[in-house]
Amino acid sequence: MELADKAVGFLLSCISLSIFTYYTFWVIILPFFDSEHFVHKYFLPQEFAILIPVCAGVTLTCFISMFIGYVMLKSKKKKA
Fold this sequence. Notes:
The protein is mainly alpha-helical. The protein is 75% helix and 0% strand. The longest helix is centred in the last third of the chain and has 32 residues, at 48-79.
């Protein structure tokens, strides 16, 4: 079981590092390249650099709020 936990942790770390590197290159370094450069075809348009994290944050906030509400309702029923 310990080996499986390490493998999952390593996989999540690699995925997180890949996303961070891609996003950093996309937002910070890519604007310095000409718009006709071949590297632009590997990235989405710049407006998605803001839209994707905002949508992910709103979705995460909604799920966390729903979870907290569910736990509060469940604990209220136990008291009664």
